[in-house]
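Researcher: Please generate the 3D structure of the following complex. Treat every line as part of one assembly.
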Amino acid sequence: MAAILELRAVKAFYGQSEVLHGIDLAVEEGGMTVLLGANGAGKTTTLRAICGMVRSEGQILFAGRRLERCTTEQIAGFGVAHVPEGRGTFIGLTVEENLRIGAYAATGRPHDNMQLMYGYFPILAQRRRQQAGALSGGEQQMLAIARALMMSPRLLVLDEPSFGLAPRVVEAIFGIVERIRREQHVSVLLVEQNASLALAMADRAYLLETGYVVTSGSAKALADDPQIRRSYLGY
Amino acid sequence: MHQFLQQVFSGLAAGAVYASLALALVMIYRATDLVNFAQGEMAMFSTYIAWTLVNAGLPFWGAFLITLAVSFVGGMAVERIVIRPVENAPILTAVVVTIGLLLIFNSLAGWIYSYTLQEFPSPFPDRTLFGALMTTRDLGVIAVTLMMLVALFCFFRFTATGLAMRAAAQNPESARLCGIPVGWMLAVGWGFAAAIGAVAGIMVAPVLFLDPNMMSGVLLYAFTGALLGGITSPIGAVIGGLIVGVTENLVGTYLIASQLKLTVALILIIIVLVFRPNGLFGTAVVRRV
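Model: Done. Output below.
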């Protein structure tokens, strides 16, 4: 399969300091790639570099297009939907307005997409007129994913969707993401602390440490790697 | 009682003007966390444009609409050219830039149009209504302001651009990730604020007469209205502006000499800041540090 997203020797900077030191990474078309690593390893920075939110060097290729010089809003327009750390919810707006904002860059009909999202996340349909800030953490995460999918993206970028949520809620959300990936043919790039769950779902995995990729391969290979099992899976 | 109601109505007409300018201030504050001290002078400059057009022989409402369009584009240009470069600068830098703009617009108007008072035509006939309770002028000002508010409300509530502007003001980073060009949304916000200010200026000019310092008092009342309503709340700005207009008129009529009316605004500001810093409808901003 061809890669929809490819990073070649990507460096990223906060001000003068380099935090990614040349990363190579790929997401297969229709596949799911997971990025693992401890806090501060550069996972979120990698995602931010892809979406043009930090200064970067190297090549970032998305569906044959170079992204390094593009603005964040252009990159979204190309079909990269990024659910940021902290979910990026528009808390003062209603659930339905949040979804309409997600459709801003979409070319299709927002109404159809909205019905599709209400199908995947029925709870959002029930709460469509409520302020998004009044939703529970799990509901807000669902809203964030639904908002991102409203633009009918080709790549869904998720930054720690499990953060702060109960295990049962996390499993439900991951189940829906997996279903959406298969049914909507969306590729997924996932940053996740919950390594066992993520490795079970993904096909490729990368392990980041202090701005370097230290291990990469199929998700299964990483799940079987004794060192990763000890450090990240705890058994 | 009759006099009291008269004063309330004329207070509402003045308040409608304050409310408009207060709304312009709130719009920019919500989008950029910045109080635009030049808002009043921009409105004054717009009013001069309308005055020029009317003197050139255009019908009043034609001149009115052209002025709104010109002000909208001018407001966008100010954001793009002057505010954009200090977008990431400390807030005080941006504040000083708006004070600079205030001086520039004021001097520019003085240079082009001179500092002498000019008479500005009123589009409304000068008659009294309901047994001299209110004048057609007051009613006209209130009606124009109300129509503008309804139009703005519908724009922000029902259009994709209006929603995108609200999103951009609330969470710029997340809005960018949704493909919303946040920079342009801010510029459009400045355009709207300038056009709203133009309405305020044109509505108040027949009463105050036109001169480059016309809006300084109005801006102070508008600040008070915005602060009273809660600087983050558009509805609050409108209600606050109306309250300030009525209070100023009543206090000026019954309690103090009308030359001292401006003091009312300052006293209100102090009362709000001491007893209710978030205003009537504002939300407390909690910053995690």
